[in-house]
Amino acid sequence: MSRGVSGRLPVIITIVLAIMLTVVPLPEWAEPFRPNWVALTLIYWAMMMPRTWSVGTAWIVGIIVDVAQGTILGQHALALCFIVFFTVRFHLLMRVFPMQQLTATVFALIALYQFILFWVNGVAGIDVPLSSYWGPVITSTLFWPVMMAFLSGIRMRVQHGR
Description:
By secondary structure, the chain is mainly α. The chain has a single domain (5-159), classed as Arp2/3 complex 21 kDa subunit ARPC3, CATH 1.10.1760. It has 7 helices and no strands. Helix 1 runs parallel beside helix 3 and helix 2 (37-48) packs across helix 7.
């Protein structure tokens, strides 16, 4: 993939779309089951392009998500930095996993992400229903294969200049 702006633009667009999907209003019954679009997108790009999209990107995107959602400043940034760090650390191993094992790994990463959010909210004394923590873990895991196929298609088109 090109190191220029044209090579980075599709990744930036997918991250912006993920942020938009994160803040778009949902019906009250569906809100606890919103997939972690930003986390899934950052996991994919950190796994495929760890030198370009890493912990610094996760921090900036996390701060943007915190501001957009009105949560404690740094909460999502911290959680995203942790999962992206583990993704970058084990990206070579994760890239050769079969889909079932990679999906299980993404489940663990998203569970860690949600645990960090749970911990920060607990320290701050914010009471959030349990379904708001486990719902996104399950839906994100279910959406991972589709998300990976979608982002892989974008990556291949950019690499081959189509």
